[in-house]
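Example protein
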Amino acid sequence: MTENTVTPSKKLSKKEARKLVYEKFASALAEYKTGVKEKKFDTNLKKASKLFAADIAKAISKQRQKLQKPAKIKAVKNTSIPHQENTNEAVV
């Protein structure tokens, strides 16, 4: 049997993702294949798998970029100094 899972450390290309999606769609929609011509069924599966694979590859690359970027340090506002209110008023 062929292994359909991809290891997380390996970069998933669009082509590999398209093949995986095509195989899963074909197995899931096998019962509907009899109602449609085989060539039309295959072309529609290829189109759908291409669209899904492009989005999947983008999402995976975004996740990897987020993991590789270090966390940004936010500036903390110093609240220990009390604010002086209305210092412009004249003292009577």
